Amino acid sequence: MTQDEQKRAAAQAAIQHIPTGCVVGVGTGSTANYFIDELSNIKHKIDGAVASSEATAQRLRGHGIEVIDLNSIDALPVYVDGTDEITEHLAMIKGGGGALTREKIVAAVAKKFICIADQGKLVPVLGKFPLPVEVIPMARGYVAREITRLGGEPVLRQGFITDNGNIILDVHGLQILNPVELETALNQITGVVTNGLFAKRGADVLLLGLDTGTRTIVT
Ligand SMILES: O=C(CO)[C@H](O)[C@H](O)COP(=O)(O)O
């Protein structure tokens, strides 16, 4: 199967995990887009969706799926999203699409986080993919210097502003031996909104599209 076929297979597998009559959290990116396409086939069985980005909200509406304000609900049974890298322990780097902060908020609320991905996303150690960090614009220089002190090489994502009006620094060269520790350290830098390490709250289930079928990993 091609990479796109693997993404679609993972998205199709995720549909089996969606309870009837619930609001569904929906991620951002090409794999999440496949999931939205699949979700539209069962839209009469769900009570709408919470979107992790403006792009996702637009796509959901385009498929006739109601977009629900996260603040109007007390609980979110399930969140489905893609990833840039994921380990067997289901820690991730996310944010390649720049939606990391809203993704982290939706993931925090969700009872179950289902990650859907092609097999190329499964890695032994996180860090080959540059780690996205969302930063308040006026703190850019300070945050970049602090990240350099931690051993990373921050690169400004040119011409990109997040849905929250902030910038992204993509951090290269980090040795991510302890993802939880690094996630915490980066978030403690003043001016950082959040970073793309999903280690403290990783996925609960990984549905990995393979050459033949899908593989499921559960924490
Ligand atoms: O974190 C994300 C967006 O912020 C995406 O989930 C991640 O970039 C994966 O994207 P794709 O499914 O297109 O490979």
Automatic annotation (TrEMBL):
Swiss-Prot/TrEMBL catalytic activity: aldehydo-D-ribose 5-phosphate = D-ribulose 5-phosphate
> What does the entry list as the binding residues for substrate?
T28, G29, S30, T31, D81, G82, T83, D84, K94, G95, G96, G97, K121
Molecular function terms, GO-annotated: isomerase activity
Matching Pfam families, A to Z? Answer: Rib_5-P_isom_A
Copy the pathway line from the protein's UniProt record: Carbohydrate degradation; pentose phosphate pathway; D-ribose 5-phosphate from D-ribulose 5-phosphate (non-oxidative stage): step 1/1
EC number(s) per entry: 5.3.1.6
Alphabetical keyword list: Isomerase
Q: Which InterPro entries match?
A: NagB/RpiA_transferase-like, Ribose5P_isomerase_typA_subgr, Ribose5P_isomerase_type_A
Active-site residue list: E103 (proton acceptor)
- Per its UniProt record, what CDD domains does this chain match? RPI_A
- Which superkingdom does the taxonomy of this entry point to? Bacteria
Family named by the database record: Belongs to the ribose 5-phosphate isomerase family.
Role this protein plays: Catalyzes the reversible conversion of ribose-5-phosphate to ribulose 5-phosphate.
Assembly: Homodimer.
Q: Which PANTHER family match?
A: RIBOSE-5-PHOSPHATE ISOMERASE
Q: What is this protein called?
A: Ribose-5-phosphate isomerase A
Q: What is the lineage of its organism?
A: Bacteria, Pseudomonadati, Pseudomonadota, Betaproteobacteria, Nitrosomonadales
